[in-house]
Amino acid sequence: MSKIIVRGGKRLSGKVKVSGAKNAVLPIIAASLLSSDGESVIHDVPHLDDVMTMMQVLRQLGANIVYDRETMRVDATKIVSCEGTYDLVRRMRASFLIVGPLLARMGRAKIALPGGCAIGTRPIDQHLKGFEAMGATIELGQGYIEAKVDGRLRGSKVYLDVASVGATENIMMAAALADGTTIIENAAKEPEIVDLANYLNAMGARIRGAGTGVIRIEGVEELHSVTHTVIPDRIEAGTYMVAAAITGSSLYIEGALADHMMPVISKLQEMGVVINEDENGLHVSAPDPLKAVDVKTLPYPGFPTDMQSQMMALLLKADGTSIVTETVFENRFMHVDAFLAMNAQIKVEGRTAVVGGNNRLKGAKVCATDLRAGAALILAGLAADGETEITGIHHIDRGYVGIVSRLQELGADIRRVEVELEQVEEEMSEVGLFAIQPTWA
Ligand SMILES: CC(=O)N[C@H]1[C@@H](OP(=O)(O)OP(=O)(O)OC[C@H]2O[C@@H](n3ccc(=O)[nH]c3=O)[C@H](O)[C@@H]2O)O[C@H](CO)[C@@H](O)[C@@H]1O
Ligand SMILES: C=C(OP(=O)(O)O)C(=O)O
């Protein structure tokens, strides 16, 4: 078991290269199941635990996968199983994205109820509503969902009650091989949806409108394998932009795509962060002090919920009080307790957090409760006095490629150490479930 130890107060400098987007590559790997004619080649596949999990999920179905450096070759010509088992699916919610492709190609998918970050109840009713509208029957029981269709799925109109990213992706993949046209209304508009649609269209699908609220998918009889390069990870890029801002440093974020990051860029600019775009990335530098701003998370093109905790870390150092409102997930303030242990002033009322500024953050023993919360604790640690020890690192490994070594290269005092499980358990029992303990008290 590992923990990350950060000693705050160092300035950062240099450049960091953005990886391929986790939230684009996971549905793209799943979409490779739709081709029965040889090998799809996917470039810029980031080395993340979630990618490894998706690879294992597809291998269990019979796909042949070779993953070397950042290129993944997926050959799903032979599918031998239509089942996503509990031990894999519980690790990652995106495993549920195999259901649309399996249903469309094989007429059947059985899968354990999905896991993922504990940031809300995260139902899958909108996915199921889409499949049912296309003629599938759904059975639920003993922690599994089974979806079946006789023959091909039928094109249909699906209005999503919430603009769900995963439901839009799952329905789009299912509809790509359906008989007739599917129209998804109130579709999610995230850049990762556009990347998936581009991948499917290159495979021979007929999808129009991805990136808008209405997506039309004319089903085709078969899809073929292609080569594709995944878009850069806008959340990873945003996290490093906050690392620059919270340490009062200048960094170059190579490969960051400003077009996908406008809500984050404009909020940081509102705070006083200086951001200049060139053809390969973003130059970020931060004066001291930064201004307090209010942040409200919304589906794209609103401010991303996946950047909320990192932004809150930054607001702790801003000059004045900020209001952070989380509208996408009902339980995404789990990082607040850890910030409080680091001497922060924050009050949470429902989905709103009042974040005091000018905090003198102090190192503490804290635990990452989800992926982005973990990133936010590293960021807070970079700006805190003394040492911050972060456990729960497996969450961070789901979504950040080599975050410790990358920050070390930029000049941060950060290291990852292996510890005995018993030691972590002992520390956790001393301080309660979330292992939060001020080291400065
Ligand atoms: C692998 C991946 O791409 N994960 C991202 C994806 O997750 P994910 O696709 O799971 O998120 P959704 O967009 O589906 O969820 C948004 C909201 O819709 C609700 N909902 C969703 C589906 C459904 O059937 N019913 C329902 O009520 C959820 O509980 C949540 O409150 O989008 C989220 C919102 O931008 C991001 O935080 C995640 O990082
Ligand atoms: C919440 C996230 O991931 P997931 O949907 O896989 O839990 C995330 O990437 O921040």
From TrEMBL:
EC number: 2.5.1.7
Catalysis performed (reactions): phosphoenolpyruvate + UDP-N-acetyl-alpha-D-glucosamine = UDP-N-acetyl-3-O-(1-carboxyvinyl)-alpha-D-glucosamine + phosphate
A cellular component annotation (GO) from this entry: cytoplasm
Residue ranges constituting the Enolpyruvate transferase domain according to the UniProt record: 6-406
InterPro entries membership: Enolpyruvate_Tfrase_dom (IPR001986), Enolpyruvate_Tfrase_sf (IPR036968), MurA_subfamily (IPR050068), RNA3'P_cycl/enolpyr_Trfase_a/b (IPR013792), UDP_GlcNAc_COvinyl_MurA (IPR005750)
UniProt entry tagged with the keyword Disulfide bond: no
Keywords, alphabetical: Cell cycle, Cell division, Cell shape, Cell wall biogenesis/degradation, Cytoplasm, Peptidoglycan synthesis, Pyruvate, Transferase
Pathway in which this enzyme or protein is active: Cell wall biogenesis; peptidoglycan biosynthesis
Binding site for phosphoenolpyruvate: 22-23
Subcellular location: Cytoplasm
Chain sites annotated for binding UDP-N-acetyl-alpha-D-glucosamine: 93, 122-126, 306, 328
Gene3D superfamilies xref list: Enolpyruvate transferase domain
Pfam families: EPSP_synthase
An MF annotation (GO) of this entry: UDP-N-acetylglucosamine 1-carboxyvinyltransferase activity
UniProt modified residues of type 2-(S-cysteinyl)pyruvic acid O-phosphothioketal: 117
Active site positions: 117
Record GO biological process: cell division; cell wall organization; peptidoglycan biosynthetic process; regulation of cell shape; UDP-N-acetylgalactosamine biosynthetic process
Family membership: Belongs to the EPSP synthase family. MurA subfamily.
UniProt function note: Cell wall formation. Adds enolpyruvyl to UDP-N-acetylglucosamine.
Name used for this protein in its record: UDP-N-acetylglucosamine 1-carboxyvinyltransferase
Organism: Paenibacillus contaminans
